[in-house]
Structures are given as structure tokens and as C-alpha cells.
Automatic annotation (TrEMBL):
ATP binds at residues 17, 207-211, 282-284, 327-331. GO terms for molecular function: kinase activity. Its cofactor is Mg(2+); Mn(2+). This is Acetate kinase. The lineage of its organism: Bacteria, Pseudomonadati, Pseudomonadota, Alphaproteobacteria, Hyphomicrobiales. Keywords: ATP-binding, Cytoplasm, Kinase, Magnesium, Metal-binding, Nucleotide-binding, Transferase. It catalyses: acetate + ATP = acetyl phosphate + ADP. Pathway: Metabolic intermediate biosynthesis; acetyl-CoA biosynthesis; acetyl-CoA from acetate: step 1/2. The record marks 180, 240 as: Transition state stabilizer. SUPFAM superfamilies: Actin-like ATPase domain (SSF53067). Mg(2+) binds at residues 10, 378.
Length: 399
């Protein structure tokens, strides 16, 4: 019997990550991954098939309609994988609001519900929607699903999700939602498998990438998180500021005379590590530069992470473990070291050698709080949720 394939799509602001999974038994196995880089000219398709990597220039453009570009991408992928055997595709969608409590089949009704949430995630939601529509246009009969970053946090208490504004606005959906849920769900599952007792305890996870957040988790369920109403909230990120006094926004819009669009662009694209350093939003560049402003950006980043760990521990009423994940969390020992130094008073002690080699457990045997490094895999969560809906007997609606 020919192996069947499943695809995953993870749309970011400047890239689309594509996972190719083979379903030869009951479990999906990753056999390839690709990234469409919108920032390069010409556009590039970075493809990895097993140990082999390919750099393929694309002729298409990243406009509002991605159908032609994705048609070209599918043709290139078809030279390496038999796309005729693709049975389903799953998409990462940042915002599900209160409309979705789990993964869903993507049809006209659910796509429209996702569209209505665009104003809650203006940077990410449109990217996912145009990709969904492009795949739907090219493969109208293909079973597609959506997996949401917000649904993992639905287990939080209403008190935690509430913002101190008039109640009527909370009732209209202005509340704390939380993001990076697919990553947290995967890492929580991995921790529960590797360290079952720790997985049942009080854990703060730090998803540190170009977008970054932290999450308080107890018994593998979300209790609180640093990101709230939007992906701007929480700790500083590559180009986003994190927590911001709302009075600063009033000052920008009032005395400084900025437009809403100008402020939005500054908050999403010009702030964070880039804004503080004046150099780069990539922490690797900042470590390499070593200048005063670069160091200040790193210090602010690690200060806010340590402070947020303490706030989340208050929600949990205790702390058993800290887990670092995502690009920075998994690969930057100096960041983990600087965060840990600010938590010495809590009894956090790192094993220097283990930390330097990115070992799974990086705390010392005498550390009062265990510290781990666990790689995340959002695409694995997407494909598992997609497969669960597919095998449940659901098929594309007639629409």
C-alpha cells in the first residue's frame, strides 16, 4: 500500500513553514520540511528531505492571493514527494477567540469565523487565511483543518483572563487569550512523558523565539500566561515591546501626533530587542556585537523573563520546574544562564556544563527548582490534531 502524506502549514509574518509527514501506520512521521522565505528576493523555497537540503528560487510573489505562488511551491515539492497521496493538510492559526475550543475542519463556515477574528490578530490572522484559501483553491477536495494557538489556554480561570476595564468590554471579547499554545501543548506532553512527576507539578515554560512568551502550567494545563489580548504583550521580543504602560500609547497618539498605523508598525516591527539595541532583533547578532546597547537589550530581555517567571509562580502558588523551549530557549545557554542568575534567590542553580551543551536537564542536583530544555515541535501538534479529525470520519463539507 502506498504511504499517505499529510501536510502542515505554519504561516508567519515573513515565512511559511511546511511540514511533510508520512502516514505508513497509525503515527505520522516527518519526512521533509520546507520554508518559503518572503523576505528574500527572489523568493526562496528552503527544502529539507532527510539529510539533503535544497535552496530553490521561486518566480511567484507574496501578494494577497497566494494561489499562484503555492502552485509553484507544490510543483517543486512534487519533484521530491508524491503529492498525489496527500490526504489532509493542517494549518496553524494564531487566534481562535472564544469561537473555537479545539481543532476544526476548515470549510466556508469555519473560515468565515476565523476571518471575523482578524482584528484580534492583525499581524498573523490574514497570513493564515490567505494560505488556507490558496490551498483550498488549488486542492478544493483536500481535507483541511485549523489548529489554534489560543485554545490551550482555555483552561485558565476567568479571573486570570480578565483585564481591569469595564465589564461590558470583557463580555465583548476583550480579555486575555494567550498564545503559543501549540508549542506549550507539545512541550507539556513531552515533559509528562520524560518526567511524569514533574509534568504533574507546577511548571513555568518559556517559549523564547522571535515571538516570546511564558506560561504557567499545572498538570499539563495552562493556568496563566504572559501574552494577553494580543501577541504584543508580555516580555520583550525580537521586534515587539512586550508589556507597555497604556499611557505610552496615549502619549504617542496625543502629544506626539502619531497615527494608529504608525504606532502599530512601531509596536510590531520596530520595538523589542531591535528597538533597544538599534542593531538587530536577532539575539545572536546582539551577543556577537557586544556593544553597550546590545548588552542592554539582552539584559532587559532576561530581566523581564525572570520577573515573569516569578509572577507566574504566584499564580501557581509554587514552582517545581522551569522549561526553556523554542529557538532562543533551546539554543542560547547565555540567555538561560542570565535568567537563572536572577533567580538564585529562589534556589535555581544551573549545571554549567549541561547548560552549555543544551542538555535536557540543566539544573544541579541540589537546585530547589528543576530546569529543563525541551525542543518544541508545533508542526507535530498540528499534524496530530489534523489526523485526529481525519480519522474521526470527518470529510470536507460540500461547500
Amino acid at each position: 500500500m502506498t504511504d499517505r502524506l499529510l501536510l502542515t502549514f505554519n504561516a508567519g509574518s515573513s515565512t511559511v513553514k511546511i511540514g511533510i509527514f508520512r502516514l505508513s501506520g497509525d503515527e505520522p512521521e516527518r519526512v521533509g520540511k520546507a520554508v518559503v522565505d518572503f523576505a528574500s528576493q527572489p523568493l526562496m523555497l528552503h527544502l529539507k528531505e532527510g539529510p539533503t537540503q535544497f535552496e530553490l528560487p521561486l518566480e511567484g510573489e507574496a501578494g494577497d492571493d497566494l494561489a499562484d505562488l503555492m502552485d509553484e511551491v507544490f510543483r517543486e515539492l512534487g519533484k521530491h514527494f508524491d503529492l498525489r497521496t496527500v490526504i489532509a493538510a493542517g494549518h496553524r492559526i494564531v487566534h481562535g477567540g472564544d469561537a473555537f475550543d479545539g481543532p476544526v475542519e476548515l470549510n466556508l463556515e469555519t473560515i468565515e469565523k476565523i476571518r471575523t477574528l482578524t482584528e484580534l490578530a492583525p499581524l498573523h490572522q490574514p497570513q493564515a487565511l490567505r494560505l488556507i484559501r490558496a490551498v483550498r483553491h488549488l486542492r478544493p477536495a483536500l481535507f483541511q483543518t485549523g489548529s489554534f494557538d489560543t485554545t490551550f489556554h482555555a483552561t485558565q480561570q476567568d479571573l486570570v483572563r480578565r483585564i481591569a476595564i469595564p465589564r461590558a468590554y470583557h463580555d465583548r471579547g476583550i480579555k486575555r487569550y494567550g498564545f503559543h499554545g501549540l508549542s506549550y501543548r507539545y512541550v507539556a506532553g513531552a515533559l509528562a512523558r520524560k518526567e511524569p512527576e514533574v509534568g504533574r507539578g507546577k511548571v513555568v515554560m518559556a517559549h523564547l523565539g522571535s515571538g516570546a512568551s511564558l506560561c504557567a502550567i499545572e498538570n499539563s494545563q495552562s493556568r496563566d500566561t504572559s501574552m494577553g489580548f494580543s501577541t504584543l504583550d508580555g516580555i520583550p521580543m525580537a521586534t515587539r515591546p512586550g508589556w507597555l504602560d497604556p499611557g505610552v500609547l496615549l502619549h504617542f497618539l496625543g502629544p506626539l501626533g502619531k497615527t494608529v498605523r504608525e504606532v502599530e508598525d512601531m509596536l510590531y516591527h520596530q520595538s523589542g530587542l531591535l528597538g533597544v539595541s538599534g542593531l538587530s532583533g536577532d539575539i545572536r547578532d546582539l551577543f556577537e556585537d557586544g556593544g553597550a546597547q546590545a548588552q542592554e537589550a539582552i539584559d532587559l530581555f532576561t530581566l523581564r523573563i525572570a520577573g515573569e517567571i516569578c509572577r507566574l509562580a504566584s499564580t501557581l502558588e509554587g514552582l517545581d520546574a522551569i522549561v526553556f523551549t523554542a529557538g532562543i530557549g533551546e539554543n542560547q545557554p547565555k540567555v538561560r544562564e542570565r535568567v537563572a542568575e536572577r533567580l538564585l534567590w529562589l534556589g535555581v542553580e544551573l549545571d554549567t556544563a549541561a547548560n552549555e551543551r543544551n542538555a535536557m536537564k540543566i539544573s544541579t542536583p541540589t537546585s530547589r527548582i528543576a530546569v529543563y530544555v525541551i525542543p518544541t515541535d508545533e508542526e507535530q501538534m498540528i499534524v496530530e490534531e489534523c489526523l485526529s479529525l481525519f480519522t474521526a470520519g470527518k470529510r470536507p463539507a460540500a461547500s
